[in-house]
Amino acid sequence: MLTGGCAVPQCPQPSETLVGFNLCNLSHSLISLGAYAPWVRNHIVQAQFWRDPWDLNNYREFSQYLADINNDRNSAEKNQQYRDNILTLKEMVLFRFEDESVVVPRDSSWFSVFDAEKNHIVPLKDTALYKEDWIGLKELDATGRLTMLTAPGDHMHFGKTWFADNVYPFLSAGL
Known about the structure:
Elements: H1 23-34, H2 38-43, H3 56-62, H4 66-69, H5 80-86, E1 92-97, E2 113-115, E3 120-122, H6 128-131, H7 137-142, E4 146-151, H8 160-166, H9 168-172
Parallel strand pairs: 1-4
Antiparallel strand pairs: 2-3
């Protein structure tokens, strides 16, 4: 489980023992100072994907990407076009990786979220995003058009054979 703070994917935790300029340490420091600060969110790409479970108000107000595309600003300001666009899909297939090291928590690949107050992962079907159908996932699921699969290995580390066997069938089904 997450215990607090923000991490940069595939970077070791910040270290005072590393000598000289270290991009991982710099990125950790900037995101920790404020993922939603204008300079950080405009220059550190990881800040665009940070949903701070300890500071959801700032996430909803200042996130320029994730809060927007997930229709997670506030319930009075949902963008109906986002939902309408997703509902045009014949099928939505979500993959999470067994040994995920980039997407944290890994189940957020399935739109699950971390609840900081209760210190646990909230599965998709228990989120407001799903229950209130902010982006159409509930309707996709109800009509049999939402598939959630687990892939072996780490983030996006798969071979051509695995891709051909597991992803291509979904792509070619619409042809």
